[in-house]
Design goal:
- It is a single chain.
- This protein has 405 residues and is of the alpha/beta class.
- The protein is built from 14 helices and 14 strands.
- The chain is 41% helix and 16% strand.
- The chain binds pyridoxal-5'-phosphate (PLP).
- Pyridoxal-5'-phosphate binds next to helix 4.
- The site of pyridoxal-5'-phosphate has 13 residues, from helix 4.
Amino acid sequence: MSLDRLDHSLDQEIARLKAEGRAKKPERIITGYVSGRDGHGPRYLLDGENKEFLRLNSNSYLSLSHHPALIEAAEVAGREFGTGPGAVRFIDGTYRHHRALEERIARFTKKPAARIFNSAYTSNCGLALTIGTDKTHWIGDALNHNSIIRAMRIANVPSFNKGIYAHNDMDDLERCLDRVGDGIERVAVIFDGIFSMRGDNAPVDRIQEIARKYSPRFRDGVITVVDDSHGIGAYGATGRGTSEFYMTEPDIVVGTFGKAFGVNGGFIAASKTVIEAVRQKADTYIYTNPLSVADCAAAVKAIDICDSPEGLDLLDNLQERTRQLRNGLAALGRESIAGPHPIVPLLIRETGATHRLVSRLFDAGVLAVGLTFPVVPRGEETIRFQVNAAHREADIDLVLGLLAG
Ligand SMILES: Cc1ncc(COP(=O)(O)O)c(C=O)c1O
C-alpha cells in the first residue's frame, strides 16, 4: 500500500510544528575531529562548512570520548565479543561487560546495586514501570527533563496521582505532599539533579529533609529519585554529582554514560531489591538489546579515569574553565544564572537577538545552542554554553572576545 495519504497527514503536522516554531532545524553533520593543538582544545568540521568549529554545545564534560584508553577498551571488547549482544539480557544477551559496568557504576554512586539501560531516557521509563502502581503518587519539578515526563505517560500515571512543584520551590513541594490523597502507599519525588536548560541544581538536601518529614504517612514512604544525568562525572568534588555537592544521598539515582563519561547508555542505581525489581518489571530493560560490549568496556574505563588523579585533573580544568567563562560574562555585564556547573547560560531574553548572536558565533567558528520559545518561556531566551575539560583558556577567551565585540 502506498504511504501517500499518511505522508500527506504527516506533512500537515510538520507544517504546524514549523508554524508554531516548534520544529527542529535540519541537523548539522560532523565530518571531522581535529585534536587540540597550540594551546587550543579540539575542533570539529561540519558538512558544507570550510572552517573548524569550537564546540560549546557538547555534554561530554570530561572530554573522554576521544580518550585513547576508552577507544582501546572498546576495541578490545569488540574484537573478542563482537559488535552486538545478539539478544536481550534474559536470553543470553548478558556479557561479563554488562555486569562489570553495573558493578562499577553501583560502586561509583555508592549504591548496593545498579542496572544499565540503553540510555537515561529509557532508564527513567523503566523506573516508572518498576515502582509505579495505582497507589503510587509521583511529584516532580516543573522543569524536569522530557524523559521523566514521558516516563509518567508510559507508566500510565493518572493526573490525580501526579504533582508538579514550581522549579526548585520547596514550599510548593510541601504543598504537593500535603495534597496527596489517602490510600496512596508510596510517593516518589523525582527531579533533575542539574537542570539542563539553566545549569542550576536541585536543592537535594532540602528535598531529602522534606521527604523524611512526610515519609511516615505512607506505607512505603516518600522515595527520592534524582536524575543526575548532567551531574554524574561533572559535579561535586570528585564528580559524583549533585548528591556529592550536597553530601546527601537520594534513594535512587538515574544517570547516563552519554554525557561526562563520553560514551552512551544509562543506569538506575539503588537497593538490591529495587534493582532486582527493575530486572523483573522494567520493559525498557527487559525487551530490548543491551548496550554493546564496546560501550560497556569504554564506560567502565571512563569511570576508572574519573576516579583517578587524571580524572581529578580533568575536573579541575573543567571547573577552572567554567569559572573563566562565568567570570568573563559577569565582567562583560552579561546576565547568567549563578552556579558552578559547566552548563553556562547567557540570558538574552529576546528571540531575534538570541538567533542573531548564535549566528554570529557560528560564523566565527563557535557552536552554541540558542534556546527560544517554546523550549523556554518568552522572556527567558538563552544561549547555552557547555564547557568541557578539553577546552583551553584561549578557547574561552575566544568566546568572550566575540561576546565583547
Ligand atoms: C536530566 C536528563 N535525563 C535524561 C537525559 C537523556 O540522557 P540519554 O541521552 O542518556 O538518554 C538527559 C539528556 O539530555 C537529561 O538532561
